[in-house]
Design goal:
Length: 115
């Protein structure tokens, strides 16, 4: 299945969209530990996913051939990321009635198929 974007929560269960770091410095570095690992999302109907990448306003960390690769955003990409993060917060508030706070990190996840 195609990669989906998500926000990170501490590694117990990771909702598809949730905030971490609140925009603080180092949030992306903290999320780097999650890249390449499996977590459960979509409470209460849990689904296992693998985290493919993590992004914040400064750039992207992605899994690539067993290691991670960091890419820094340019000014236009950083501005677009900030706008998309604000829209994600607004979507959670308007559609689910939850104020998730400032989005600090967004995860790209891929569903894991059970055998």
């Amino acid at each position: 299945s195609p990669a989906q974007r998500s926000q990170v929560r501490p590694p117990t269960s990771v909702p598809r969209r949730h905030t971490a770091g609140g925009g603080r410095a180092g949030a992306l570095a903290d999320a780097e530990e999650l890249v390449g690992k499996k977590y459960w999302v979509e409470w209460p109907y849990m689904q296992e996913v693998r985290i493919k990448a993590a992004t914040d306003a400064s750039g992207r960390i992605a899994e690539q051939q067993g290691s991670t690769r960091r890419t820094a955003w340019g000014p236009d990409e950083a501005s677009r990321w900030v706008k998309e993060a604000a829209m994600e917060r607004d979507t959670w508030l308007s559609k689910r009635g939850l104020d998730i706070g400032q989005v600090g990190v967004v995860l790209e996840v891929q569903g894991v198929e059970s055998v």
